[in-house]
Amino acid sequence: MQEIVLFSALLSEMTFTWYNKPKNWSVNQTTINVHTDKNTDFWRKTHYGFERDSGHFYYHSLPGDQSFTVTVNVRGKYNTLYDQGGLMLRTDENNWIKC
């Protein structure tokens, strides 16, 4: 499970959308709780040759070429090898970064 805490009041006014919506999740003004589904991930062109675009991504689109600043605090209960959660910037399935 990953828990993401949102500190900005502006975020409560923004509309977010799921890409690969998980079965179990909740959100309020300060917290997103996500229980990830099994076998979900984001990987591109790995050394081993596999690619994945099945991970959960809760996002807000920004039109055009905009600069922005974001601060996040991620606390997770990572129980299994490769469990992770964090921040992702994404243009499409071939152009993204996660940290």
TrEMBL record:
Q: Write down the SUPFAM superfamilies for this protein, in alphabetical order.
A: Concanavalin A-like lectins/glucanases
| Name of the protein in question | Uncharacterized protein
Pfam families, sorted: DUF1349
